[in-house]
Amino acid sequence: MFCSLGHQPNQSCRGSSLRNRIKGPLVVTSHVGSALVHDSWRTTMSGGEQEMSSYYVGVDVGTGSVRAALVDQRGVLVAFADQPIKKWEPQFNHHEQSSEDIWAACCVVTKKVIQGMDINRIRGLGFDATCSLVVLDTHFCPLPVNNEGDSHRNVIMWLDHRAVNQVGRINKTKHSVLQYVGGVMSVEMQAPKLLWLKENLRETCWDKAGHFFDLPDFLSWKATGVTARSLCSLVCKWTYSADKGWDDSFWKMVGLEDLVADNYSKIGNQVLPPGAPLGSGLTPEAARELGLPPGIAVATSLIDAHAGGLGVIGADVRGHGLVCEGQPVTSRLAVICGTSSCHMGISKDPIFVPGVWGPYFSAMVPGFWLNEGGQSVTGKLIEHMVQGHAAFPELQAKASARCQSIYAYLNSHLDLIKKAQPVGFLTVDLHVWPDFHGNRSPLADLTLKGMVTGLKLSQDLDDLAILYLATVQAIAFGTRFIIEAMEAAGHSLSTLFLCGGLSKNPLFVQMHADITGMPVVLSQEVESVLVGAAILGACASGDFTSVQEAMSEMSKVGKVVFPRHEDKKYYDKKYQVFLKLVEHQKEYSAIMSGD
Ligand SMILES: Nc1ncnc2c1ncn2[C@@H]1O[C@H](COP(=O)(O)OP(=O)(O)O)[C@@H](O)[C@H]1O
Ligand SMILES: O=C(CO)[C@H](O)[C@H](O)COP(=O)(O)O
């Protein structure tokens, strides 16, 4: 059933593209609207001759925006563009998007990154996206996922928690597929959302539905017309097994037997490994919309966190003084930190970690098992804490007067008020439990809530900055908690590889190093998720023989941030408090639910 990662007919291999050479000047950097274009088409070769590189377009659909990059075969981003996408929250815990709006944004950013470029040198296109659920009818038109009947809003976002009741019933079945999602299915996965649609929108949505796609698979279908699903999406979010396929008994047991009856045609019965080329490549229609040449290779896609993992985990670490230099790749933990944080660890054999998703075979790096820990809100939590504080308008005004981002301003403000002590010590009496949207890992408990202890009457900028710091630290303690669970189950981790929007925040990075005691590697390209998407396009083009080869050629170490071991005792004490917080929260619930 699986395609191998092979060459597409009529496409030259990497060796021949390297033989195309031109002469001319190089390197101009300019801004085009919201796009950054770095014209390094021509790379100087020895003897003054210049090599004509091949390029790939990577498209990354995050929670808040769509990004695209033009990436060369060494993994260098030569152009970048982004565009916000619409989100609706019609009621608490319902989060919706529009697949048409998302596709339109993909077209805008792709056109921007290829502006002024010789598009014939673009050899592959790769998509990644959040694991949101897209619903289309039998004619591939959007169907409403809401009571209002608004078919424009046809995407249930990954962070939508409407299906709490449904996931509770699914977990009560104790079906064996649950072993492969950490023992407990998350409300963020697709089976509970499908059941919710069947039980709540039967006539307007469920009965009319022809196709349920994970968002990454929707994008590759839009580009190629091929409805094949990525092994990544199906294994990680839909209970598919790389080795046994669908399990009929699960779908029948949870009340979704109608999906089995038509041989899974609505949720996918053709499955391909990430990076495999799809059909005849880019369709003429999609080519027109994206501004790319028709027929270029389009890759089977990945979920965004997994693309981030590919973009960072395979880098050559020699010469950076890292302990993982002499260790297998399984000692590396990729942490993709955006709206949420995802902790991606790989292993040769399956490792069952209670409360951590997986083990998933070949869902990220082919041939390896994957465990995925996660925190459902991290970037979103920091924004929530900062924007909800009484001193936020003052912060905004002061940051904009200095032409700084609010986070750069807060970081420098913390440096100012810390005096002689390390900045992290400012939270000695302020502690946060970060599960404002439930706990994804390692407790897998969506009923957990956020906690803050140590509040005072003051509401000034100092107070806001310290609350922000305590929140960042709580997120890092959450990562430590996940790492401990993974190690207790058999992982042996030594080094973190961070990417995503939050990895641009030096305080966030330093706190992850200090609190976990592990060095943090940042990639040369800050937009590493896009490098991951481009790696897919490069594999589909046939320019690399395997995902592993593309990873080692295209992901590069940029900066390493080492932990301040002298602060360890302080963070160990704060970690003890962190663990007490959740213990106490559970005690409060037990008291309140008792007689
Ligand atoms: N330069 C920066 N400094 C601090 N935080 C940042 C920076 N850039 C992005 N972020 C934070 O990263 C988060 C978004 O990350 P991103 O990877 O873009 O998210 P997503 O993929 O979920 O759309 C936001 O919470 C944002 O505030
Ligand atoms: O569930 C996930 C990956 O398995 C991601 O958290 C989800 O896709 C959202 O990602 P992001 O925070 O980057 O927007």
From TrEMBL:
Pfam families reported for this sequence: FGGY_C, FGGY_N
Domain of life: Eukaryota
Reactions this protein catalyses: D-ribulose + ATP = D-ribulose 5-phosphate + ADP + H(+)
EC numbers on record: 2.7.1.47
Keywords from the named record: Kinase, Transferase
Domain Carbohydrate kinase FGGY C-terminal span(s) in chain numbering: 333-540
Pathway stated in the Swiss-Prot or TrEMBL entry: Carbohydrate metabolism; pentose and glucuronate interconversion
InterPro entries named in the record: ATPase_NBD, FGGY_C, FGGY_N, FGGY_RbtK-like
GO cellular component, one term: cytoplasm
SUPFAM superfamilies hit by this protein: Actin-like ATPase domain
NCBIfam families according to UniProt: 5C_CHO_kinase
Family: Belongs to the FGGY kinase family.
Purpose: Postulated to function in a metabolite repair mechanism by preventing toxic accumulation of free D-ribulose formed by non-specific phosphatase activities. Alternatively, may play a role in regulating D-ribulose 5-phosphate recycling in the pentose phosphate pathway. Can phosphorylate ribitol with low efficiency.
Protein name: FGGY carbohydrate kinase domain-containing protein
Designated gene of the protein: Fggy
